[in-house]
Amino acid sequence: MAAQPAPEVSPPGHHHFYYYYRALSSDNVKGLLLALSSSAFIGASFIIKKKGLKKAGESGLAAGNGGYSYLYEPLWWAGMIAMILGEAANFAAYAFAPAILVTPLGAVSIIISATLAHMILQERLHIFGMLGCVLCIVGSTTIVLHAPQERAIGSVTEVWDLATEPGFLCYALIVTALALVLIFYFVPRYGQTHILVYVGVCSLVGSLTVMSVRALGIALKLTFSGVNQLVYLQTWVFAVIVATCVVTQINYLNKALDTFNTAVVSPIYYVMFTSLTIVASVIMFKDWAGQNATQIVTEMCGFVTILSGTFLLHKTKDMVDTAGFLPIVSNGTTKHADKEDGFALEEMPLSFHDSCHNQV
């Protein structure tokens, strides 16, 4: 009998890399690339729009003073197109990869905005701001290497079955009830004085938005691949939910940004929105079902690292841009005099729906 060849043995220390490489399925890779391209477009769009605002203000009334001359500025429209492309890429990313991978990567747009502002707008990036960028990169890399694979779904009805399971139904009912209580009881009484009221509505509704966006994205992906999902009522139900939730988010996010300091609103919203989105995705899509405790803890450590980088970036932004700003009181209710040379400052994009509100 001929001798059997010896089994191939991986070189020592290489099996972990091979495991992580295999963990990134083709769908995860597509979702990752789409999420990164989305961050690139959105991050760059804020800088392009601000350049357009400045250029428009030189020949007309500045936007910060109530002018609309920027509507005639091609550079501003280029920024808007970049933002639309970024949102489209982010929408598509949810069709390929789990929310626990896509949503935290929204922090990459902060790095891009901060870097481009430093290079193009000559807005000095503090050394601790650079450290914040590094922390965001490290945290994002950690999540990418340990993200769960996207589960195979062959029909929008399968997503509907996941959405109507008792666990997620309970979550959706609790979130809806809390959002309604905030809207009808707390907003009229405490909306102008407590930042968590407006941000809470945005974050709660946002978690449902992302789940519906994923469902709608999966339906469209299957439709474009030749399996028509538009004939199912569930597809249109998810579309209505997306539209309703997005409008609600934009409304209350604008209220929060108009009432409170952007540097306070943005990180708080990012933390709450991303945390609730991950919880919703874990419940509905069972993202952690095939992962062990080590992987889950590592993902959470990556998320906390991103949060640390985000807060550090915003804190040092206040440290650097002190001229012309009012101090922030301890409860965060004092708003910046958000003007720079007569132009409204653009807030840093932080997540999928952070940049959905109407900015100029």
Automatic annotation (TrEMBL):
Membrane topology: Multi-pass membrane protein
Subunit-structure text: Homodimer.
Family: Belongs to the NIPA (TC 2.A.7) family.
Annotated GO MF terms: magnesium ion transmembrane transporter activity
Subcellular location: Cell membrane; Early endosome; Membrane
Keyword field contains Membrane: yes
Transmembrane segments: 29-48, 68-85, 91-113, 125-146, 166-188, 195-219, 231-252, 264-284, 296-313
Superkingdom, taxonomy of origin: Eukaryota
Entry keyword annotation includes Phosphoprotein: no
One annotated Gene Ontology cellular component of this protein: early endosome
The protein, known as: Probable magnesium transporter
Keywords of this entry: Cell membrane, Endosome, Ion transport, Magnesium, Membrane, Transmembrane, Transmembrane helix, Transport
Function: Acts as a Mg(2+) transporter. Can also transport other divalent cations such as Fe(2+), Sr(2+), Ba(2+), Mn(2+) and Co(2+) but to a much less extent than Mg(2+).
